[in-house]
Specification:
The chain has two domains: 150 residues, D-Maltodextrin-Binding Protein, domain 2, CATH 3.40.190.10; 94 residues, D-Maltodextrin-Binding Protein, domain 2, CATH 3.40.190. It has twelve helices and nine strands. The strands form two sheets. Strands 3, 4, 5, 6, 7, 8 and 9 form a seven-stranded mixed beta sheet that branches. The chain has a two-stranded parallel ribbon with strand order 1-2. Helix 2 crosses helix 10, helix 2 crosses helix 11 and helix 10 crosses helix 11. It is globular and about 60 Å long. It is found in: Cell membrane.
Length: 313
């Protein structure tokens, strides 16, 4: 009798143990299912259209010439592509080399083509090996720029100001070439010279001359932060040495659309206004790092950036 009772108790204990284990397993299975459901409802699962994964770590290289406009625009576009998941490299180059690297396919693109005048010769040399995505900024201009306090209002008015020297930027830049052409186009400039330097050196020389109220003539372009910083004017150009209105265009290498269609769409859509680029340039001139200035602008202009990423899949 005792032995029979003991067997019954043992069997009951074993049955209870089995039921407990089964319940625990069922609870775990249900918990995983609920967790997955919660994740889907909260949008925590990564979907195919997650913008941070669009580029999927693909490397893209944008090249630019170190003019204030191009530092600003290239960093802004680079930030937008970086936010889409691309590994972005921004490379400053000499003007001619910038065009060559995109045309040869060594770099993927640039947003720094000044047309039709400033980079006109370079465009003609390489246009058959490039994809022209059109203007990203309209209404640009180049010419000779002087402080407002100078009496001259036209290139034809110049006599012996500033030791008959025009302060230029990098040798080979379109605006420097146009200034050199002006020496031939204007009889009053026959004894003048163009002194190449750099964009930064030109801006420094301009600021120092204005501080001392001295005469200075520089190769200038707009948009540029110097027009907000100083009271300046373009000298009239009756001979047309510097051409008319300029546009800044985007050029990419052949095959980019097939290799990186979403990056291509962003570069194709990229377009902004003078006030946009000047706000970035002013921030950089005020001491903000170009990457930080670009990131701030992108964050503050979501609507415009959204128009650039339209159609990105």
């Amino acid at each position: 009798m005792l032995n029979s009772t003991w067997k019954k108790l043992t069997l009951a204990a074993m049955l209870m143990f089995v039921l407990v284990v089964a319940a625990a397993c069922g609870s775990d299975d249900g918990g995983d299912s609920d967790s997955e459901g919660d994740s889907e409802e909260n949008g925590e699962e990564t979907s195919g259209d997650d913008s941070s994964n669009v580029g999927d770590g693909q490397e893209i290289e944008l090249v630019y010439v170190e003019w204030d406009t191009e530092v600003a625009s290239t960093n802004v576009v680079g930030k937008v592509l970086e936010d889409l998941g691309y590994e972005v490299e921004l490379t400053p180059l000499d003007n001619a080399i910038m065009w060559e690297t995109v045309a040869s396919g060594e770099a993927d693109g640039m947003v720094a083509a000044w047309l039709p005048g400033t980079h006109g010769d370079l465009y003609e040399d390489h246009k058959d090996s490039l994809v022209d995505l059109g203007a990203n900024l309209e209404g640009a201009k180049i010419g000779l720029v002087v402080p407002e306090y100078m009496e001259a209002s036209s290139i034809a008015d110049l006599t012996d100001e500033a030791d008959q020297t025009i302060t230029g930027i990098e040798a080979g830049a379109g605006v420097v070439a146009a200034a050199e052409s002006a020496l031939e186009d204007y009889d009053n400039l026959s004894d003048w010279s163009v002194e190449p330097s750099s964009s930064g050196a030109m801006a420094t020389a301009l600021g120092e001359a204005i501080d001392n109220e001295e005469n200075i003539i520089v190769t200038g372009w707009s948009p540029h932060w110097k027009f907000a910083e100083y009271d300046l004017k373009y000298l009239e150009d009756p001979e047309g040495s510097f051409g008319g209105e300029e546009n800044i265009a985007t050029m990419v290498r052949e095959g980019l659309e097939e290799d990186m269609p979403n990056a291509y769409k962003v570069l194709d859509n990229f377009a902004w206004e003078t006030a946009d680029i000047e706000s970035v340039m002013s921030a950089i001139q005020g001491g903000t790092d170009p990457e930080e200035a670009a990131a701030n602008w992108v964050e503050e202009n979501e609507d415009k950036v959204s128009s650039w990423t339209e159609g990105v899949e």
